[in-house]
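seq as requested:
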Amino acid sequence: MRIGVVSDTHLHCRNVRLPDALVRGLDGVDLILHAGDWVSERVADELELIAPVDGIAGNNDGFEIVDRFGLQKLLQVEGVTIGLIHGDGHGKTTEKRAFDAFAGRAADIIIFGHSHIPYQERRGGSLLFNPGSPTDKRRQPRFSYGVIEISNGNCVEARHFYFDSKS
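struct tokens:
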């Protein structure tokens, strides 16, 4: 199973156009997970044209997104437990907050966002993965998203994909 991983799209109702590189890169995935800061529910609608979508809300999302997706969750996907959280808060680093949020809950993969910084690290038996942002790179040199491949109950590969133009 191939899972597209996106976060921090920050797209408003008046401008919900996903970058062509993201749409092409997610073509053929089986599921898309969004780690918050959608800003508009229309982002989910656009992503659902590619594959089924799940995710959580971030600190810039309104009540409708919080109600639809929640603030954090554990998913079982092909025998792998995936924790989803945005990662915002005070104190600690974003990845530490994300990791601590699932302490004692045996998440094989913890997907988070918030920092807009692509990140991948194995910690305490979990893979921590932040896809970065496909639309708001902030101080990063390139836009990004991720793809995680799962097979036989294991994370086979987690990769970041980078591109230069959000059009």
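Residues 94-101 form the longest helix (8 residues).
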